[in-house]
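For practice. Supply one:
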Amino acid sequence: MIKADIVNIVADHTGLTKLDTKAVIEGAVSVIIDALHRGERIDLRGFGNFDVKLRKSKKARNPGTGEEIVLPDRAVPVFKPSKSLKEQVDFEYKNRENNK
């Protein structure tokens, strides 16, 4: 599923125009990105949490040449789904697999 699919589905469910829906979705994504850039945690109850984790530098190998390289410290965005989201996805997945 891509952003355009989400826009279409949300527009159908809410009665908003596709242009309005696209603006809302892009605005929400922009707010999340800006908050993560500032190092803030975003908690969407019933969905999950977005956060920033710091990864320490480490040694790695270039798979093409075998050369050893050092990956620098970096901040990476992470998502942790809520318990209810995990349970719902697991339940739906098991039902789909059982009905095949």
About this structure: Residues 10 and 90 are 23 Å apart (CA to CA). The mean pLDDT is 94. The longest strand covers residues 48-55.
